[in-house]
Fold these 2 entries.
Entry 1:
Amino acid sequence: MKIKYIFLVVFSACSFSGFAQSKIEDSLMFRKLYAEAMLKGKSYENLEILCNTIGNRLTGSPQAERAVELTKKMFLDAKADSVFLQAVKVPHWVRGKKETAKIILPKQDLTSPAAAGKYYQAKRTEFSTEILALGGSIATPEQGLRGSVVEIKNLKDWDKIKKQQVEGKIVFFNQPMDAKTINTFDAYGPAVKQRSMGAIMAARLGAIGVIVRSVTLANDDNPHTGAMRYNDSIAKIPACAISTKGADLLSKLLAEEPALEFEYFMYCNTLPDVMSNNVVAELKSNFNSESKTEYIVTGGHLDSWDVGQGAHDDGAGCMQTIEALRILKAVGYVPKRTLRFVMFMNEENGLRGGEEYAKLAKKNNENHIAGIESDAGGFAPDGFSFEVSEKQKEKLKTFWKYFIPYGLHDFNREGGGADISPLKAQGTAVFEMMPESQRYFDYHHCELDTFDKVNKRELEQGAFALAALIYMISEYGL
Amino acid sequence: MKIKYIFLVVFSACSFSGFAQSKIEDSLMFRKLYAEAMLKGKSYENLEILCNTIGNRLTGSPQAERAVELTKKMFLDAKADSVFLQAVKVPHWVRGKKETAKIILPKQDLTSPAAAGKYYQAKRTEFSTEILALGGSIATPEQGLRGSVVEIKNLKDWDKIKKQQVEGKIVFFNQPMDAKTINTFDAYGPAVKQRSMGAIMAARLGAIGVIVRSVTLANDDNPHTGAMRYNDSIAKIPACAISTKGADLLSKLLAEEPALEFEYFMYCNTLPDVMSNNVVAELKSNFNSESKTEYIVTGGHLDSWDVGQGAHDDGAGCMQTIEALRILKAVGYVPKRTLRFVMFMNEENGLRGGEEYAKLAKKNNENHIAGIESDAGGFAPDGFSFEVSEKQKEKLKTFWKYFIPYGLHDFNREGGGADISPLKAQGTAVFEMMPESQRYFDYHHCELDTFDKVNKRELEQGAFALAALIYMISEYGL
């Protein structure tokens, strides 16, 4: 009994001191990672190179291929232990010539008493408006598509719409994002359905085209593109995004003159699939233990829409991913688990890169315990969302306190990134970095998503946050 | 005993239901205030008017006076119960013609072996650099001020500097803000001393001029001005800010060629004091109770530096103040206490408006229980800092939980705004809104502080936060 008692005392003293020590070590490591990120950060200059020398990089474009080569080199410069490409067959949609559109009011006597006071009365009978083809849309006929317009102000009203109201017409989905929602991502979900599903919904009732209000909270002339779907059993109709100011104008004119027509020209086309790549870098574990067979993967998506520069979406997440590797290596961290860093190809219109990565991970029997994504903009990080088991949630609570001094405070949201969702389906715990959300949708999928919209420190803080989470999971597992 | 028992039960039931009810009412009021701010907000368009029609507005300038008239009208449009001006005698410093400066390397044989490899060797022997006179500085002599340069890289080294090292020279204070500090306001404090005190420190040891590294974390060509002090018993010497890129260049050249000289021309001048105004609006309390004799004052400062547009500093805080009044009125809130909303004049170079307000409050025997300021930029609000009694701190803990769902989470910082510091000295509890801090000093006191740097939703969220805090203090006191 006495011996046993002594053992117990020694053991608990050790574990207590071990715990205390590790807490200090972790805090010190956080400080080192933060200092490295803020004093010697490379993510901002790397993002400038990506944005200003390559620019936007839609899957299948020559720019996307140049971005593969560029980020491979960036990984090597960041001192990755190894870098390799994963071949991915990807879709290839092209926009073609710039789209045009106009609103045409019926001919009438503008001097008549009926016209007095109407919005357009003092103006003109044609209004040009900015549109962008939605990604994946078919083109309009060569002579353009022209038709009268049915406006849907609230998607909830759609179920009441009858075929005869819509048939042969252009459906105009005009539900705004809800400005009184606090986190803008929560406002995105309900509004984006009209973009992704609008063409199917409208064509099912016989519509000939679809116009979608840009999914943004900004009030300006920039149309925002994004992915849309067709259903093979339903007619494909041309789908475009209209700017929020254009949408408001169209709505106003429709209220005064329901017989107006909308005419648009789009030149987009879906070409045969082509080959592209994920770019994968590794920091190897030198520990001789079970843990080294566990993988932690972190990434962003390298492709972007074909307008703007894909700076926040998702050049920022890609550069932060490369930077997380650089920081961890620069401070001399020796990982207990195998760390992967991935530039996923084709998040925007296919997710083929994420799917291929997960497929290969499974095939190669790589035990991915965690997937981390940065794809919500290069703004100051507020926290992480995640989808993990209840037991993992408890363990994570011991991690989050280290992040609080660095401004990360929100660990209550659910969700992981799109590119790592195929891993989630295989049982991997997934995380997404949640930056301050107010500005994201101002720039999202439009001409405004350019390098000058990114703040250096905010971007660097995000890179630190990724590195810090990778460190904690690498040290303690999940 | 029985009767007493019944009373107790009834009393506690009432107080419990009263508590529960008030919690729901408060949550609902927060929602109403938020919806009003985000759906019908006026602060963004008001800020555009202030910035784009008036622009910057240094105390004493015609623009400052136009801003007084403009914001008086804005208060009336926001449905203030009353608006009045408080006369304030203010300083009147003018910049005059644009400053110029150059770094001059000594003449030498650039083909000599000694010059090989030096930074300037392949370049030239004169480098123009961007400067701004610091606010309050005297001009240089008409023929400019030229002298050799002593660089101080760290203010901690100053105590070791001897008179003979500095006498007859120009002191170049070149301590950067510390980029690894998390909240940028914490990095500002240690670095700003060289700007405010540099001229006194240098002149005390016989220096003829002073150059100060711009107090910003950005690396660019924009010099940042700001207030500086003289001491009447020590010689006044011309003081300028140099851009961070200019400072780095000067430092590099000094390392190669310590004998270089700096020459600058400044045309600034301090004119006699003039009269200006604080703009004060009121929402009266209709409650017949003691509480209506308690005042809650909220404000920003209307003056700005004379470069850029004073958008974040502090047009944002002013427009949020007016908007807080508008929101509270628009949702039909009837205040339990008297609410004041103030455009303080002369925060940047004198604080005379804040001092005058406090003086009049005391003279008129107005019991100011709380002063709230917004003067840290129109970015997404993170929380409030405050200086209150321990008892008040406990009470405030019951307030903060209502703010959490709106993204405000940080209630751990100490401090109130500058304009309300004279009230604090009279015993008033003071608060300052703390927005996300990363971008603030990029724009602060320089040409970049313009309307386009402000995000609509972030600005509006700040106005909501002010209104919500005013509401809570108005309802429950401190």
Entry 2:
Amino acid sequence: MFTVGSQLSTGGRTGVISTPHGDIRTPAFIPVATRAAVRAVLPEPMRELGAQALLANAYHLYLQPGSDIVDEAGGFGRFMGWDGPTFTDSGGFQVLSLGAGFQKTLAMDAKGVTADDVIAEGKDRLATVDDEGVTFKSHLDGSRHRFTPEVSMGIQHQLGADIIFAFDELTTLMNSRGYQERSLDRTQRWAERCLTEHERLSAERSAKPAQALFGVVQGAQHEDLRRQAARGLRSLDFAGYGIGGAIEKENLATIVGWVTDELPDDRPRHLLGIGEPEDLFAGIEHGCDTFDCVQPSRVARSSRVYTSRGKENLLVAASRRRFEPIDPECDCYTCANYTRAYLHHLFKAKEYNAATLCTIHNERFIVRLVDRIRDAIDDGTYADYKADFLGRYTP
Amino acid sequence: MFTVGSQLSTGGRTGVISTPHGDIRTPAFIPVATRAAVRAVLPEPMRELGAQALLANAYHLYLQPGSDIVDEAGGFGRFMGWDGPTFTDSGGFQVLSLGAGFQKTLAMDAKGVTADDVIAEGKDRLATVDDEGVTFKSHLDGSRHRFTPEVSMGIQHQLGADIIFAFDELTTLMNSRGYQERSLDRTQRWAERCLTEHERLSAERSAKPAQALFGVVQGAQHEDLRRQAARGLRSLDFAGYGIGGAIEKENLATIVGWVTDELPDDRPRHLLGIGEPEDLFAGIEHGCDTFDCVQPSRVARSSRVYTSRGKENLLVAASRRRFEPIDPECDCYTCANYTRAYLHHLFKAKEYNAATLCTIHNERFIVRLVDRIRDAIDDGTYADYKADFLGRYTP
């Protein structure tokens, strides 16, 4: 399903991922449609701004409307009117970060209680992890649910995305070394169970388009654990790999480098939840092929837009009379048709279209950035393009 | 600026209103873009769904971003990326209904205080009307402002719509007969002042596209006052007429009939704030040419959609698995691409696109209804079309 094109000496490469719903030219930024909808933007503008695929969240769609309903609708792409390639994540991140208690856990860490103590204790209000799976409370109504590798595979088969991810355990940088080791063992065993269940379900649902399962490499900030995790997953037959978990920004390139060093070159690698320009350069340079992140959409809703100089806030009073586009060089629909003064007004007036127009701009900015990096790798001008972009851009 | 086409024996007619930004085939429903934006829908989908013109509110745009800013942007149409014909209302309705105290006034009526007592008293928290104009508090920040006929004309010239309205006083059905008479005298004098100021400003701003000023007929539920108001305005040189003020639904046809009976046939008539299907039939039948109403958009945001049977709520649990469009006969973008099950999910998940998709459907429904009435008048099949539509539709 993956063909490698040009390569950088650092391990970065271009390529093409083939899916039943079309090809993805990589590196590619995959916008997030958490609940089978990109917040405030319909599928057509997403296609027009160059999105090649969308990623939805298994956790959210399981809770609402229910993955059985999405299955009856023909999968999340058809449900939302998107006919291109699709991804779903496994829910592993969300059951621990949203499902209950992760924020609380981090707060408790600060007071000297380690994160694993709290998770291990299994207090009523927290998500609890055991060797079989994770029990958690819905962030919507507090109801109790349980995800296991098999449950996650069942949900993701119902959601019907072209690329799906193995169910993994999210740890934090504050978990102890011992906990990270135990967690990693568990994630490896879960990966095996996911593969088995995925094969079983694929046979059972053979009339539906084939789905490709990616294993997810955890291991936090530890080189030996990251390498061990990557080697462990490499020994299994995954169609591709996700790189997940707690990664401090300044170590991103290093950690990604350890992992891609161990992974096979002929399988695509997805860096989960990463989308800031400087991080995309780091990830791509070290061999990641696809990326997803809610950031372009989330910051747009709080009136912040990407420009070649960095993020700017349209709500500043200085925007009131700026009758010019966000970025005169931008080729997006918003910059072609609207001024900063108008967008400032929409945010002040709390109009829905403010979110729509700024999300279109931000998603286009990030999608185009990755497209240009891809072209630069193919043209042999990557180093120049990176120096030029990052020379002007302040994170 | 107005050419009459076919006519009904009841006074209804088809026609064409010519503006500097294009023609409007009448009768026509004009969707509302209160703050220079149709809530949750961009201009392109509005054009695609058949909207011929948009109407913005002088009161809202005066307060935010300020009509001077809209003027600098080239008028509200250009500001929001809409190149078709535009209307603005005068702010007369909003300064009394939103500006402060109108709700309160109505509440006090119920306790035996008449609305005019409260308005006349000029209590601090209320809008106060005097012969010169209206002083009111902003609903946004409580700041004090004053609208006069001259101020309203100045604002509407800055907003730059093709069709603008004279500044009038809104009364309620609970105002005393004596107050209605005094108010009507005032509205007539304000109409004269608006015309004078409009002519002065038009000469001063002669480089800009010509704007057409419509007088507004008030008179509440009283036949003699409505007729007197219409005759009074007819004696002045207005390009067209608005019909405004307090009208009980069951008397709509009767009241509109009194007014259009007095108005010249060669000028267009706009029925302000009316947009429910049954009211559109009544208004059109009695000679109204254009209509505006926030209703299609407002009810869409609360998950209610128009169908040939009446309004239905997509949030009902029965929608969860209805994998079919809102209305299989509807030709809108939403019905062509989305199911009730998906829209139900979007409302449950509080996704912005729920409002977008249902507003597109509702605006299309109402725009198309008026278009079909127009065709039926031209074809001589109006009575059949009305009987057929209202026979199935429950308000």
